Amino acid sequence: MTKHDIDRTVQPQRVAVSQIKIPTPEIIDLDNGFKALAINAGSQDLARVEIIFRAGTRYQHKSLVANAAISLLSEGTANRTSQQIAEELDFYGSFLEPSFSRDFASVTFYTIGKHFYRSMDVLTDIMVNPVYPPHELELFCRKGKQSLLVDLEKVSTLSRQRFFSALFGNNHPYGTFAEPDDYDKLLQTDLVQFRNQYHKATSGLIVIAGKIDTQQVDFILNSFGNAIFQGKTDSSKSLPEFKTTDYRVFTYKKDTVQSSIRMGRVLPKRDHTDMPGLVVLNTILGGYFGSRLMRNIREDKGYTYGISSFIIPMAELSVLVVSTEVGSAFAEKTIEEVFKEMRKLQTEPISNDELELVRGYMTGQILRTFDGPFAIADSLASLFQYNNLNFGYIDDLIKTINQITPLELMELAKKYLDADSMVVSVAGSHKPKGYKE
Fold it and tell me: What would the pLDDT profile of 278-301 be if each residue is shown by its tens digit?
């Protein structure tokens, strides 16, 4: 073997990453209380603008309003019809993506440098002059209702909705879900009222990323940055308290071959001191393809094609979720095995080899989240939403990944992975013993 050959029977040594150099964005405080982050990075002649509002479903006075208010922004303005907007953006090679969650709503706009200023004129019109045409709202409702009716036939939808309703309560903003009939109650005035109150509130963020210059940033902020965010509404109202009362729930679905399982619990906010360690613990449990849940329930038992656990960050808390679909005959056994893996994490220290594997995987995933200007923009937006723009969070996470010990992981498992604290939601045709329907 020469020095140029590689012995592929020997695993390469992991090189620990102690810090990721995050490109420092330009932070601009607008007069109306919004912030803007500008990231000049990348070699392609592309730009992306994301506008984030504190306008998620937790703020709506009527079901579906937050969704419709952000989704229909580009479906007609005082100056352009929906078709005209679509044709212009297509001609400029630009496109717009609306999205919403429980806490936030956003519009993400992509364009190329060649048509930057002309495409930004269209975006400005969308953001400043939306009118929510009645015929577009009617089409939105018709399509949305049909899509929801289809989704409600899926056991995965039923178990997910019942999980959050049991966890937070049916009257909590995080525990409520739209019904098909809610589409029939949606009015244009609802959307206008919601937009005026929350899309114009004073505590949002604009993230500008790509191959951009100072003139382009100024153009964006002068065009709509100060124009639309002039409201004085404080949209940071706290969530109501919640109390979990039903920990084992079942939703019946006739003649289903599979059962869908969602199980988990509430965790602290992402900026809590325990969270970096919990991210590591979750990765070991079910956060990647080589996780303990995958090895046990997929590879060893063969109950499912896939099972995973993940942590959903929210503005004031987080939620741990274990998710899988299994043959109905194996639902109870699967739940038992999940709890068995949690107990092992509480009682048996993880081996150094497994911990090193997880460290390498997690470090690589973090590096990927900062690979390119748009990935950087996504990561910075997430820091705004869940860490109050604390740029040290990533360093703290990397430090924890490299330094956390098996004993510390065991203590976190004892604190957070207790079976009695877990809500378990099953949807299917076979009801497990002791579950509330």
Answer: 999 999 999 999 999 999 999 999
* Number of separate helices (H) and strands (E) present in the chain: 14, 11
At a CB cut-off of 8 Å and minimum separation 6, what does 385 contact?
52, 103, 104, 313, 315
Closest alpha carbon to 104 in 230, 196, 225, 235: 235
CB neighbours of 392 closer than 8 A, spacing ≥ 6?
A: none
Going by their DSSP bridges, the two strands 248-252 and 258-267 should be labelled as unpaired
Alpha carbon distances (Å) from 134 to 138, 148, 187:
6, 21, 9
- The yes-or-no verdict on residue 24 having pLDDT over 80 is no
Domains, in order of start, for the chain = 26-225 (3.30.830.10), 248-428 (3.30.830.10)
**pTM (predicted TM-score):** 0.91
Q: CB of 269 within 8 A of CB of 318?
A: yes
- One DSSP character per residue, 250-279 reads EEE-TT-SEEEEEEEEEE--TTSTTHHHHH
